[in-house]
UniProtKB/TrEMBL annotation:
This is Putative transaminase. Residues 6-360 form the Alliinase C-terminal domain. It comes from the Eukaryota. Belongs to the alliinase family. One of its GO terms (biological process) is amino acid metabolic process. Pfam families: Alliinase_C. Its cofactor is pyridoxal 5'-phosphate. Keywords: Aminotransferase, Pyridoxal phosphate, Transferase. Homodimer. The keyword Methyltransferase does not apply.
Length: 362
């Protein structure tokens, strides 16, 4: 069984093996004893070295404004989403604030929002059909997961609060058009470098009070974020930034160039397989100018969002019959004729997926 229903980023292991000891760190037994990392920082559990490398990487890539922003570190971007919902909610309101996102939306948004049945916020559904008066929070995912298209806010009302989830706004997935400049912007290590197991994400927050409330949520939730994970993450981000600078001097291989070429080849194989069986369709993405690569590049989403054609009503079940576990459209707020499949697995599993897709028949 090929398990391609999640975005487990095992594709990147080959690159990091080639890096050898460049990302190896030694953490002595006496280190990371204290809860605190920097008591002068609003996010008091943020390791200074990690914060430095976050700023450096965004400046190297050009995908986010960091000046005048507070960095809040979280246990993956999932914790930061909940922290942001907590921070933006009105704690004295009679009713919980609605949380919306345009369908097809990230499948975990409704589950995360309603998991604890909070009195502060609740899932309000598809932003495209949201018509209630009053304040709301809109989750904007760009490039979109699962579709892969660049997106923006949909509701666009004066009493709306926005959280921008930019997990995939990196040059190996999409052309970088300009630095993102939003009130709350979320990133995660799992999709930028592939280190999902470190469980590290970060938020760039414009408003000081929002940053304080997000920090308070994480303090109450987990009393901070692992220092060891932050130190490892800092080393990984440093190597990524270094690899870009070394590649420009012909001294090494750029992580982003390597990853872009792998994704480009995978999408080429995928298009050929889909054309061969005629059972599926998916969007064609235009090229765009990427300021990082300084040339036109392709949109190469981490997932393929496929629609079953002919009389197939349940795309997820069809793939399951061919031993491919995917995630059906109902999880994303749309029809089961749609399905999301991860393209981030190992070369071996990806090639098996292509073989099964190419030979698939009704």
């Amino acid at each position: 069984m090929l398990v391609l229903c999640s975005g487990d980023p095992k594709m990147y292991e080959k690159f990091w093996r080639k890096m050898g000891d460049k990302t190896t760190i030694t953490i002595p037994g006496w280190k990371s004893i204290s809860y605190f990392s920097d008591t002068t920082n609003i996010c008091w559990f943020l390791e200074p070295e990690f914060a430095k490398e976050v700023v450096r990487l965004h400046n190297v890539v050009g995908n986010a404004v960091t000046e005048g922003r507070y960095i809040v570190v979280g246990t993956g971007s999932s914790q930061l989403i909940l922290a942001a919902l907590y921070a933006l909610s009105s704690h004295g309101a009679a009713e919980p604030i609605d949380v919306v996102s345009a369908a097809p939306y990230y499948s975990s948004y409704p589950l995360m929002t309603d998991f604890q049945k909070s009195g502060l916020y609740k899932w309000g559904g598809d932003a495209k059909s949201f018509d209630k008066d009053g304040p709301y929070i809109e989750l904007v995912t760009s490039p979109n997961n699962p579709e892969g298209h660049p997106t923006g806010p949909v509701v666009n009302r004066s009493n709306g609060l926005l959280i921008h989830d930019l997990a995939y706004y990196w040059p190996h997935y999409t052309p970088i058009s300009s630095p993102s400049d939003h009130d709350i912007t979320l990133f995660t290590l799992s999709k930028s470098t592939g280190h999902a197991g470190l469980r590290i994400g970060w938020a760039l927050v414009k408003d000081q009070e929002v940053a304080k409330r997000m920090t308070k949520f994480i303090e109450l939730n987990t009393i901070g974020v692992s220092k060891d994970s932050q130190l490892r993450a800092a080393k990984v981000l440093k190597v990524v930034s270094d690899s870009t600078e070394e590649e420009n001097t012909q001294e090494g291989e750029s992580f982003f160039k390597y990853s872009y070429e792998v994704m480009e080849q995978r999408w080429k194989q995928l298009r050929a397989a889909v054309e061969a069986n005629g059972l599926f369709t998916f969007a064609n993405f235009p090229t765009g100018f990427c300021t990082f690569f300084n040339k036109k590049t392709q949109h190469l989403p981490a997932f393929v969002w496929m629609k079953c054609e002919k009389d197939i009503e349940d795309c997820q079940s069809l793939l399951l019959q061919h031993k491919i576990r995917s995630r059906g459209g109902k999880h994303f707020g749309v029809s089961q004729r749609y399905v999301r499949v991860s393209l981030l697995d190992t070369d071996e599993n990806f090639n098996l997926f292509i073989d099964r897709l190419s030979s698939m028949q009704l």
